[in-house]
Amino acid sequence: MSTEMAYELSLAVALATGVMAHYCYANAWHASEALAEWSDLLLVEGWVVLEQTTQVTLIEHCWLEHGNPGRIIDPSMVLLVPRSLLHQVHYFAGVRRTRAEMQTVACGDLPLVRSSGSYGPDGLEQVDYCTAYAAAHSQATQLACASSPAKTVVIQPAAFPETTEARSDLVVRVTSSQTLLRTPP
User: Fold this and answer.
1) Number of domains in the chain
2) What is the Cα Rg of the chain in Å?
């Protein structure tokens, strides 16, 4: 499981790249293009567990990581979950792709690994992706059972955009990670 999302950076990237709700693969790909000068950026295919009032959702998801340890940049989730509830979002990285690997992949090629087996040759046969799924499923089940009454666990596969075109002409330029969009918690 990875650390918490870098909220301000994720929000800036989301606004600059014109993200579409529920299209995490395209959103992450376009964000990686907007952050092209970040050579250590990773595109991550994995799972997110989101605890909600009556259910715990296990979501097939894509996001970016930057630095070591990896800061999560998630232009999709930042617009779907209020900042005050980000502690209820848990990330489970399956496959991390380097900048060099991302440069050989078009937006429409994503996801390269997919649970259903119908996209990409490996599906859950890919060991790291399968391990991430198992850990995410275990976390979702634990969270659901810890509630009274128990919450329902919902498994949600990823959605795919009707277009691979970027939705904005803005470019993200981070001048200082210390001062980027400082907002009160």
Assistant:
1) 1
2) 16
Residue 9 CB neighbour total at 10 angstroms = 24
Tell me how far apart the alpha carbons of residues 62 and 110 are, in angstroms, rounded to a whole number. Answer: 9
| Six-digit token string for 63 | 């996001």
The pTM for the full model equals: 0.81
Torsion from C-alpha of 128, 133, 136, 137, nearest 10 degrees: -150
> How do 55-66 and 42-51 pair as beta strands?
antiparallel
Q: Is residue 74 part of a domain?
A: yes
Establish if 182 belongs to a structural domain.
no
Q: Is the peptide bond before 69 cis (omega within 30 degrees of 0)?
A: yes
In angstroms, the Cα distances linking 37 to 54, 67, 125 are: 42, 13, 33
23 falls within a domain: yes
Residue 43: CB atoms within 10 A of its CB come to 23
Average pLDDT of the residues of the chain:
80
